[in-house]
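pinned: reference chain
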Amino acid sequence: MKDGTPHSEADLRAGHRKRLRERFLSDPSALPDYELLELALGCVYMRRDNKLLAKRLLARFGCFDGLLSASSEELAGVEGCGPAVDSFLVLLREIIARASQSNVQQKQAITLPDIVEMGRRRLKHCAEEEVWAALLDKQNRLLMFKKIRHGSMDHVSLEPLEVVELMIKSRASSLVLMHNHPGGTYMPSQEDRALTGRIALTLRQLGLFLHDHVIITSDAAFSMMRDCRLK
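pinned: its structure tokens
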């Protein structure tokens, strides 16, 4: 193309994206949030200008954490945001959760705060209740972090026998249970307390141990052990 010839819209987008990428690689922390999101959205919509969509998403959800917590229905309400963005955010959430889990799994002995942080990475953005178990060996090393049950927006069921079977199958000596309360309070319900007591008693009778049952919300984690709900 000769000098003075008008650039096409595609050329302008490519040039802008190249400059944005170069600025990011030079100093990732220097980019404002909307430009960082714009760059990420380039992996979703590769042939369009994503600056306006990035600004709309941040205006709607406030921050990256709010965006990662957004439901499919909420995302669909943002102009220019299609199902591909929803899928991309699901991918990001899964990568973040697995990175946290692999970090804990590499430790020789882990602490309850390690497990809680791993659980928060996995559960804080979930729109429906799930029950997960961190299964530990006798040296308190993480054997497995596994989803036991998937429920609805405000309820998930679990039986002590399911926990026993999982521990025996994985040869675990102890575990930390956790589940989330999407959009709700971190305080345990009466059902949560009763179930936790039944599970603790059942495991104790078999020489197994429940360290804690932790409830996760978008911005908090509640330990039933610290609150003396387990005895």
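why pinned: Residues 58 and 64 are 7 Å apart (CA to CA). The first helix runs from residue 9 to 26.
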